[in-house]
Every structure is written in structure tokens, then in C-alpha cells.
Amino acid sequence: MHGGQEKVGMGAGEESTRHPIVQARDLVKLYGDLRAVDTVSFAVMPGEVFGFLGPNGAGKTTTLRMIQCVSPPTSGALSVFGMDVRDHPAEIKRWLGVVPQETNLDPDFTCRENLLVYARYFDIPAREARERAETLLGFMQLSEKADVPIEGLSGGMKRRLILARALVNNPRLLVLDEPTIGLDPQARHLMWEKLKALQSLGNTILLTTHYLEEAERLCDRLVIMDAGRILVEGRPADLVGSYAGDEIVEAESSPHVLACLKEMGCRFEVHGDMVQAFSDRPRDVARRILETCNAGRVFVRRGTLEDVFLGLTGRELRE
To answer: In terms of pTM, does the model score above 0.85?
Structure first.
């Protein structure tokens, strides 16, 4: 925030170099015989929005918990701000802002009071805490709700207040676990707007999400995990281009259509009553299906991160 206003979310240690904010090498987390995180390596650079995607049980939240210094690694190396998470947990936590999956605001306090009480954990002087609280309530469009008890807030307001709380200590790194879970489209878009604004101010953001559109919109880079391992890493657009293609042909599945696709040498996948065909000439494929394959509905659509995700992790339901 400019024009004389305090910056939101940037700590005194604003990054000026290109050293990684987070770096993991061969990181492992074991729970008994379960390898929740299995030899993963990645680096998060200053100012990035970096995403962790994967089905339930993939190891995303476990990885974030190690970064937050609340769950020690079993083996491998993990540093945050250049400090080993095993040796410097207190120093690292001082510069973290965390948005958990659950809504864990204190129901006995108002919006403002939730921020002021949280500021005490960081020994922020009372006057400065009040100034930060007012700035953050305004940034998150909650000023009119400052004196409203938590029970009087909508779900979207609660999630925005949790994000405001995570910014009270001017963190150098924001860690967001499903930041828009349970929100309606309007509230989700407002959260996206605020996260992009925070990035524009220089904040580095880690997030997990099951909303693939959210990851595609927000993330500069991301990893897709499954069974504790990283399957792919890269920019969303690059992953879509490499694993799904810029455009995908979809048609109603029938013996005629499948025979045509085999004759054309197209790679295709059948999902229920639809077939997806992948080709570097998708419009030519669609035209031929329509003209010669006795097809019903046929269309060409943009490839998405969801196509990549499902192609890598499968379509089986994960509980």
C-alpha cells in the first residue's frame, strides 16, 4: 500500500536478493511406516506465488507443516529464509504468516480484538498494533465490521479476517492452506484480488488448493504431488502445454468416433460417455470427426490445469 500508508505484509527483512525463501532437498517425513513426504526437492524464490497441488493424502499439508516448523523433517534438508528449520524454528516463525484450513478465530472477540490479541504474540507495541489492525481491516474490506463479533460474520468475511490476522506481524512469507475453502465465487474472487495485491507489494506466498482454476490464476510456479512425491513442477501454462496441449477435442464417445481417432493416430481418453482427443491439430481432428465419423456433439476447448492434474493423478476418488 502506497501513498504514505504502511505496506501490508512485508517485514523489515524485505528480500533484495534472489536466494530462495524456501529450499528443500530430498525432504522426507515418516509417520511410522507411512512416507507422507517422500524425497521431495523444490525452491521458492522471493515474490513468487508457489502452489502445492495434489489429491487428498498427497503430502501437501505435511510439507507446509514442516515449512512452518510445527512438524520436524525425518530426513533431508529444509531451510526457510536461509535458516534450517530444525535449528531456528523460533526465528522462522517470527516472519511467517499462516492461514490454516480451519476457521480458528476466537469467537469471544470482535474482528479488531482478534487482530490485537494476535499481535501480542509478536510483542508488537499496543499503539502500533492498533495502527496495523486498522490498516489490515481496511485492506481486507472489513472496516465496517471491526466491532462485530465473529459469529456475525459470513464465511467469506471470516476467511478475509484470518488472512488479515496472518499479516499482523508483517510476515516475509505467507503460508496458505486452502485459503478459499468453502467460499462462494464472489468471496473467492475477492480473496484472489487481495492475494495478488499482496504479491504486488513483494510478498512471497505458498498455497495449497483443490481449486485448479485458483492455482492457474494465482501461481507463478507449482508442483503436483501424489503419494508424497512431486510428479511435475513448473509454470501452469507450461505444464498445460506439455501435458495436455493448448486445445483439446471432446466428443460423444461411440464406436465410430473411437475407430476414427484410432485411424487418425490420435491419443485419446474415454471418460464416461465422452472422449478427449489430444493432437497438435485439434481443429482438423474435430472437423474430420464431424464430417466422417457419424459423431454427435463435438467441440474444441482450451487445455487446463485440471486436465494435467487428472492425467497425472488419475480420476479415482480419494477419501
So the answer is: yes
